[in-house]
UniProtKB/TrEMBL annotation:
Listed name of the protein: Methyltransferase type 11 domain-containing protein
Family stated for the protein in its record: Belongs to the methyltransferase superfamily.
UniProt GO BP: methylation
One example GO MF annotation: S-adenosylmethionine-dependent methyltransferase activity
Domain of life of the organism encoding this protein: Eukaryota
UniProt GO cellular component terms: plastoglobule
Organism of this sequence: Clitoria ternatea
Localization in the cell: Plastid, Chloroplast, Plastoglobule
Lineage, uppermost ranks: Eukaryota, Viridiplantae, Streptophyta, Embryophyta, Tracheophyta
Chief localisation class: plastid
PANTHER family linked: METHYLTRANSFERASE, OS08G0411200 PROTEIN
All residue ranges annotated as the Methyltransferase type domain in the record: 178-277
Record's keyword terms, sorted: Chloroplast, Methyltransferase, Plastid, Transferase, Transit peptide
Pfam family, one: Methyltransf_11
Gene3D superfamilies linked: Vaccinia Virus protein VP39 (3.40.50.150)
Amino acid sequence: MAISVAVTGMYTLTPTFRHPTRLFSPAPFTTKFRPRASSTTFVETQTNPTDSIVVEKSASRSSNSLACPVCYDSLTLSSDSQLSVDTIPGSTLQCSTCQKTYVGNRTHLDLTTTSGAKSYGEPMPASTELFRVPLISFLYERGWRQTFSIWGGFPGPEKEFELMKGFLKPVLGGNIIDASCASGLFSRLFAKSGLFSLVVALDYSENMLQQCYEFIQREENFPKENFILVRADISRLPFVSSSVDAVHAGAALHCWPSPSAAVAEISRVLRPGGVFVATTYILDGPFTVIPFLSTLRQNIRQVSGSYISLSERELEDLCRGCGLVGFKCIRNGLFVMISATKPN
């Protein structure tokens, strides 16, 4: 069963920055270079409309990336049709090892370990459960996400998308998981860009996936044939090891119950040379004068399950500890975009 699509052709895009570098200046995007008194340098990048990336899409390296979240063996689709937004409803996938069956509903595939359970369920930390609330899911693209630019220095979806293209350049044409995709803001951008053979919009929240599905249905000429929605636990990704070209996690890492467990899973599913790109925020700079900041972070984590990063080095150590190399990051105020690669 194939969930990736072989596409041939040439695609040209213009990246926002020429060389992915360690840091962005907290100031808005300008064109100057200035050093800082540390081992890291603030670099402000320049847009050059003449730069272009040419991508030749090729056949996927894996005929079936979806796996049972219990035993990680490939899932077999009961029909001959290819999985897509339109074919997921009523589709059936089975694991040949544990014989567990997963059935698609109207909007998505539920590939959690508790899928199909009638009586058993496990509550997640507050930072996860919050986004399962229908009202929060509805508001996410209707005001919630927009506030990130005000308090956190997030450049906005379009600029963030342009920035991450530089990091994703080595794997353009492959498949990509948009992990903790929420209502699919970036999932839809990935699909409409035509730069990936398959886009998997993945989230734990059923209501977020419902919102993503509804946004897709409203868009004309959306490429549904190369797009699927999957409900999954970020710490138990339902994909075969070394089968994924790229994983993106936008404004999500700080919400994960265990960032180390999640990034370790991401490392497992990435193929050699695969790329992980994520955005989050860091409380450094003036926040370092807050008394007992580390203790405060620990208390917040115990109450909400949210993980607050206090330095770039923490994020670099997280990636390195999970087997990813070539760490890079871009800064703009509290905002940080990180990238790391699975070694070849």
